[in-house]
Give the backbone structure.
Amino acid sequence: MLPGQKASMTIGMILPVLALVCLTMTTSQALAGGNSSARSVAMANAFTALASGIDAARYNPANLGLADYQRTGIELVGVGASITNNAFTLKDYNKYTGAVLTNSDKDYILSRIPDEGLKLSVDAEATVLSAARGNLAFTVTGVGVADVNLSKDIFELVFNGNTFADTINVTGSYSEAVSYVAVGFSYGRPVYNAGTRQLAVGATFKYLRGIAMEEVTELEGMAATYAAGFQGEGRLVARTATGGSGYAVDLGAALKFNDSYTAGIHFKNLLSHLGWSKGTEEHGYIFEFDTMTVDNMEDDYVVSDDYTKEIGNFSTRLPAVMTIGFANTSGKLLWTVDWEQGFSSAPGASTKPRLAAGVEWSPIKAFPLRAGYTIGGGRNSALSLGSGIHLSPFYFDYAVVSGSSFSGSSSKGLNVAISTGLLF
């Protein structure tokens, strides 16, 4: 191969890299996720100072200690799902899926992928037969979350091949996923009253039943082109489990200034432990090739090995997240603002702060209209919309999340939620 000459893509060169990619994505894409309160999703999940009844158990259990926030009701079903990426909109997907790509198309697609890589996030949540009465709430919630990040170099290789003296790295890619069921008991109580002003504290104690988890603990790989031929090596190690148990604790405080304004702070998963004891395994894949050329690439030149072995029990934690909120809680037009800060980067959490704002307008009480906008938190900026039907005691709420505008084509994923139940 002459210096400066572009290498054509070969099976021997591409398969090891794609194997790493496929192994990284397999378990993560099996999970899904989102928030199950459609009212909250429609208001960009800015709900810390506004959530009442069953929603208070999710967003701030201290609200259960405020008299005006206590509700008696049963949520029959709540389901939410979100699948997003950080690069491509629905418009891009429709334009390029199945199309023959020109060089300008490839350049555009590569320009959309951030330097840190293509990130895929999946987040699902479902609740069933949760209930609240007075300052108590009981919730049953199934959760599945996953984060996958693919190095931009992988896409450079797929589209353009490998050029002379260039190196393709998959280092920087990662994958992590977990699914579990949480049975929660929430309690809030007032600690100070002065006229319409109230201060309350609360907690949610959750028993966790782990369903499955996957985490890539080691991932590195490269492929380079030299005058003598191709060289490359890679290593992937992941641990998985199919059962476990543990606990998590949420804490919160809420201050009602008067009949119109409330502030709150919520620490989700401040304490947590999830011990994995069933189906605990380690999976590995290793490949290597040295000075591979067109002449020898068909002679089993790539040396590879994969293994699966049982490992001992291990434990993980759910990501801790702090949210501070402020809301106007009276009148036909309600509004709310949240600031969220994760203490670690993990599926469903980010150390980058998130700001969200939402409104609910009820010109007709039975048909509320909702909207919200969120930015930051390592996620896409997004506009949310929703409504519902409230015919006492029955309610049905729904929500959709688009991209940064009203146009659905600007969306970088899919996010929907519905919830229904009875309020007495």
Observations:
- The chain has one domain: 11-423.
